[in-house]
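Hypothesis: this fold can be encoded by more than one sequence.
Test: take the structure tokens below, design a sequence, compare later.
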């Protein structure tokens, strides 16, 4: 590998390591995962049915019987 390429790679990695956003992405992923797992467990435990926003919109415009909480 040419020295110029190695130097550019080193500088890129150095800048990335000091970037606060590089660390924030990992934390956000873990937070999102925890929320998703907790939701899935509560749904399973409570026997709930999950619907999408589109399903909710379709059901409410067609006046389907739905339980809203």
């Amino acid at each position: 590998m040419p020295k110029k390429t190695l130097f550019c790679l080193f500088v890129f990695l150095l800048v990335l390591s000091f970037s606060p956003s590089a660390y924030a992405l990992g934390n956000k992923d873990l937070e999102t995962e925890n929320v998703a797992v907790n939701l899935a467990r509560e749904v399973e435990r409570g026997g709930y049915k999950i619907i999408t926003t589109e399903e909710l919109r379709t059901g409410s415009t067609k006046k389907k019987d739905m339980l809203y909480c």
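The mean pLDDT is 75. The CA atoms of residues 13 and 43 lie 42 Å apart.
Hypothesis status: open.
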